[in-house]
Design goal:
6 strands; 2 domains; 31% helix; three-stranded antiparallel β-sheet; homodimer; GMP Synthetase, Chain A, domain 3
């Protein structure tokens, strides 16, 4: 998999993905950026949410669970000292829908964390997953 | 650091970063997505390029190197088997400018990789960095 990025000004970069999509990243004013786009560490955190969220959505679809909504909430704890890596990340899946089977949700989350989520497996951080099922 | 994502349809997710920026992620048609946005693993790869690129840009600015352009090229090798994590990532910095000091570039890349880049430090993958200096 390939990607390339082009520096624009300040701290802003345009990233081009292999599938042909562009994204912006920027730093905050305190670091010399313009806050025009997410920080790279935020992109990393969101990539984990997208990856595991897609797993859970597609597994629950196969299990014929009728979701009315699915949200992923993430909280990352970072080291105090440089390079300030993520030490621990909590991922919470909030599933809404009618007659959602709790076992199906638990299994979908487990499969994503243990087997499918490539972003999670690429991280050097403790990842803790949980879920919440809410009525429609 | 917090983030949240909302599932839309297919495999598309909208991510919201703590600094207030939204990004889209999507899967490809082969997986049930619509290819409307980068894959999560592409986001991860680009986050590494953005993080290390911002370090290199800002260190070279402090060292008063006049860049006319800076690009970051990334290539990630993934495991064949699920969860298909990144095994190895090559990051190449392509610096253009007048009278660019090679030692300054080498040092900027080294500082990013060893000390500053929080995305790199959060990854469980071998990361190899290189650079190329081209005339303006």
């Amino acid at each position: 998999m390939r990607a390339r990025l082009r520096f624009t000004e300040g701290l802003q970069f345009v990233g081009f993905s292999e599938t042909g999509h562009a994204v912006l990243m920027d730093g905050g004013p305190e670091a010399g950026g313009e806050d025009s786009a997410p920080r790279p560490m935020e992109m990393l955190l969101m990539s984990l949410g997208g990856c595991s969220g897609m797993d859970v959505a597609s597994i629950l679809r196969k299990k014929r669970q009728a979701l009315s909504s699915l949200e992923v909430n993430l909280r990352g704890e970072r080291a105090q000292e440089h390079p300030r890596r993520f030490l621990k990340i909590e991922v919470e899946f909030v599933v809404r829908g009618k007659d959602i089977n709790e076992e199906a949700v638990a299994r979908a989350v487990e499969l994503s964390m243990k087997r499918y989520c490539a972003v999670k497996a690429s991280l050097n951080a403790e990842v803790k997953a949980s879920y919440k099922i809410l009525p429609e």
